[in-house]
Amino acid sequence: MKKDNRGLSLVELIIVIAIMVILTGLVTTSIGLANSKPADECAKKIEATLQDLRISSMGKYDAYLEIYKSNNQIYAKQVLTMDDSGTTTEKLVVVGTKGVDLTYEFENSGVFALLMDGYSIKIKYDRSSGAFAVPDGYTGRISGIKCSKGDRTVELKLTLSTGKIKIQ
Fold first, then answer.
1. Is the pTM of this model over 0.85?
2. Number of domains in the chain
């Protein structure tokens, strides 16, 4: 009687294990990138909204940006007041979805505070210089914003004297 021992050789087994390790690495990396994307998007949306606010402020509007958190989402609301008529218009943008946290820094203090549900921060430009101004009812200016989700944190550095915004 002849036995037919057809099994996997050691080389075939090593190749299968190597392929599984590579696929596991690719899936893990993809999941990590997918988790960090909301933080990147939040920072980019805030930067775009601030640039739009700056353009509006340098024109014929008195404008400020209010960033607030409600129902675990982060919103940016531009409030534009026409100089001549006093007519106010608002533009609302969702900048951060569930799971994204936003922290902010006052006057380059180095201390970041978490934006909590129901609270807001305001950012305003000086119409004559383009620098950041102190909004009504505030004692200082926002100099930094961090958007984070999971291990990923993206910082927006606001240069107070020039009005520049830099994503780090």
1. no
2. 1
